[in-house]
Design brief:
Number of domains: 2
Strand content: 15-25%
Shape: globular
CATH superfamily of the largest domain: Malate/L-lactate/L-sulpholactate dehydrogenase, NADPH binding domain
Radius of gyration: 20 Å
Distance between the termini: 25 Å
CATH class of the largest domain: Alpha Beta
CATH architecture of the largest domain: 2-Layer Sandwich
Strand order of the largest sheet: 2-3-4-11-5-6-7
Structural class: alpha+beta
Helix content: 25-40%
CATH topology of the largest domain: Ribosomal Protein S8, Chain: A, domain 1
Largest sheet: 7 strands, mixed
């Protein structure tokens, strides 16, 4: 049966973070690192990215138990120049590695104006916008790109899945308006969202996936028989390709046929590639001036006359800001099928269940 709002239970962020931290600690991750991963995952849930927060916990725990993740990685810089660095994650949890890359890029950008940090030997790191947002409190623009953790997209005109969702997130600060947050896959939807639909028994909209016959696939439970569609046809394919080269090939990480499906393989080193770019606004103009100009851009976009049936022009990130406000006040909604999985994880690890 499909899951609806009546099948949801809400939990505070603190409850969810504490539960995930307990689970990670029980698998051998040091307490401080477990808390960091839990915080970054919960931040994804707060932003409304239900496919990239606690939803991922059972899969992550499975990989930790199979030693697909290194619970105590030696994350280190292997190449270092004034405005760039290359980070080796030693197969640790992607959240820890990307968080460190963002910190390095932001610190470098304070001196150089712009800084780029590439990443290799990483793993799936959850919601992309969590990391691009890290630059905002430093009055910077943050940009994050990743090679997806499983191939579900053929090259344009092909049939073999050689590309992943390869997402990008860009966060831009504003003054009185909410920040702009572009967080998107290069496919029409993320595969994680497909998995959420499958778990909740929901039918996918046409246009997300096609089956082996080339016709629309709407049964999420059969997603492994089809493939995702790129945004904008060949343009989305082109973006996925270039992002894969920049985040994967350039860093010595896996791309193309070398990408390992973390959902199907729990023990292999995925060597996931990512990169983080930080741009210090003050290197280009006064921060206050920039933020006010971004406000003006937002006002201009939102004042545009709308097409029939459209209530108003939305800015990228509007949904995330709305979700954050709702979940801060009312808690994070979790469906019963997920809660059952989380209870099994807790019992298996001999830790207290959520809530």
């Amino acid at each position: 049966m499909p899951v609806d709002a009546c099948d949801m239970q809400r939990f505070t962020r603190d409850q969810i973070e504490a539960f995930m931290a307990r689970c990670f600690t029980a698998t051998g991750i040091p307490c401080a690192d477990a808390a960091t991963v839990a915080r970054l995952m919960a931040e994804g849930d707060m932003l409304g990215k239900d496919s990239h927060g606690i939803f991922r916990l059972p899969g992550y725990i499975g990989r930790l138990k199979a030693r697909g993740f290194n619970p105590i990685p030696d994350i280190k810089i292997v190449e270092d120049r004034t405005a760039m660095a290359l980070l080796d994650g030693d197969n640790g949890m992607g959240h820890l590695i990307v968080n460190r890359a963002a910190e390095i890029a932001i610190e470098k950008a304070k001196k150089t104006g712009v800084a780029w940090v590439g990443i290799r030997h990483s793993n799936h790191a959850g919601a992309a916008g969590v990391y691009s947002n890290m630059a905002l409190k430093h009055d910077m623009i943050g940009l994050y790109v990743a090679v997806g953790s499983a191939n579900h997209l053929p090259p344009w005109g092909g049939t073999e899945p050689l590309l992943s969702t390869n997402p990008i997130a860009v966060s831009v600060p504003a003054d009185k308006e909410n920040s702009i947050i572009l967080d998107m896959a290069t496919t029409v939807t993320s595969y994680g969202k497909v998995k959420v639909y499958a778990q909740r028994g929901l039918e996918m909209p046409e246009g997300w996936m096609v089956g082996p016959d080339g016709k629309a696939l709407t049964d999420a439970s059969k997603a492994d028989t089809g493939h995702l569609l790129p945004i904008g046809g060949p343009k989305g394919y082109g973006l996925a390709l270039i992002f894969g080269i920049l985040a994967g090939t350039l860093n010595g990480a896996h791309f193309g046929k070398d990408v390992i499906d973390m959902n199907a393989d729990s023990s292999s080193n995925t060597n996931t590639g990512q990169f983080y770019l930080a741009v210090d606004i003050a290197a280009f103009m006064g921060v206050d001036v920039f933020k006010k100009q971004v406000d003006a851009v937002i006002a201009e976009m939102q004042s545009s006359p709308t097409m029939p049936g459209i209530d108003g022009v939305r800015m990228p990130g509007a949904g995330a800001h709305a979700a954050y406000a709702d979940r801060s006040a009312n808690g994070i909604p979790l469906p019963n099928p997920l809660l059952e999985n989380l209870a099994s994880v807790a019992d298996d690890l001999s830790v207290d269940r959520l809530g």
